[in-house]
Amino acid sequence: MAEGGAGGNQPPREHPQNLQGLLQMAITAGNAEPSQLEPMSDERRQWLQEAMAQAFRGQLEEVEQMKECLRVLEAVSPGGEGGETSEPAEGDPSRQASALELLAELCENLDNAADFCKLDGMRLLAHRYLEHPVAELRWRAAHLVGTCAQNVPKVQEQALALGCMRKLLRLLDHDGADVVRVKALFAISCLVRAQEGGLQQFLRLDGFSVLMRAMQSPVEKLKVKSAFLLQNLLLDHPEHKETLCSMGMVQQLVALIRSEHSPFHEHVLGALCSLVTDFPQGVRECREPQLALEELLRERCQLLQRQEEFQEELEFCERLQRVCFQTPPEESSMDR
């Protein structure tokens, strides 16, 4: 191979460090001109065989690490065999927390996430750890569900089939630990974005109401992430705007904007913008005199003028003014 100017009898200066690198090297070789191809030397063939073996061994080692983590997590106290009623073994939860932490790191790799599910790991999270009495194990389990589910439809489908959505919404709505609620929201977002089955479960379980209550939480991180998810769901699924309006979402968003000014308001205003975009009913509700939204927007624009860190929030305010109060509702639309 002539890559990098190396001669036919010498390995390249830099060897690929993993399976992905070896595959890239193979693609590069496959694209080479016939005149560039040279017979493979014995030395290079041996190096390539060893490199391939090492890469596959690394993948197998990660699967073995996941199996060992699952052995730690699967331990049950006497009489606690099987099913949703299994009880975690008495003992030091720090070992279980370490296992969940390592699994989350390993499952950043999509292949490992799929293997984790094949090893029945998702079932263990759904049936035991999302409802574990130890808060650290609950939040680590929720984080692992989200990590595995990101952009992997088969994993999303398995998590949904195991009832994760219901349990995650319950954690978001009722858990006493803020970090558990934040991680539950992360996992929910990974199950509803670009996943129609997840969105349908979310709707069936009154997920928008849970999201609205999370936006009213005193926890800033939870408020921001909830509003951001609502904004994106409205952009991706405008067909649900009528449902949200019937729930009083316009009035609740305006009430949040009236609270003491915070960076969180940018995302609330963004969600309200998404709600009224090409939706006359939303515009009409924003014009209700008792909301006094026009005056609120005018005051907010004055407050934000010449404050560079709030320019996006200012733009949302100006767009709402333009759409809701300068155009008839039937004609209103908004640039995305």
Estimated structural class: mainly alpha
Distance between the termini: 50 Å
Radius of gyration over all CA atoms, rounded: 26 Å
Q: What is the helical fraction, as a range of percent?
A: 55-70%
Overall mean pLDDT: 84
Main sheet record? none
Strand content: under 5%
Low-confidence stretches: 1-15, 77-91
* Apparent shape: elongated
**How many H/I helical runs?**
18
The run of helices and strands is HHHHHHHHHHHHHHHHHH
Strand runs, count: 0
Descriptive overview:
With 336 residues, the protein is mainly α. Helices cover 66% and strands 0% of the residues. It has 18 helices and no strands. It is elongated, with a radius of gyration of 26 Å. The two termini are 50 Å apart. Residues 1-15 and 77-91 have low confidence and may be disordered. One of its GO terms (molecular function) is adenyl-nucleotide exchange factor activity. It comes from Mauremys mutica (yellowpond turtle). InterPro entries: ARM-like (IPR011989), ARM-type_fold (IPR016024), Hsp70_NEF-Inhibitors (IPR050693), Nucleotide_exch_fac_Fes1 (IPR013918). This is Hsp70-binding protein 1. Residues 19-115 form the Nucleotide exchange factor Fes1 domain.
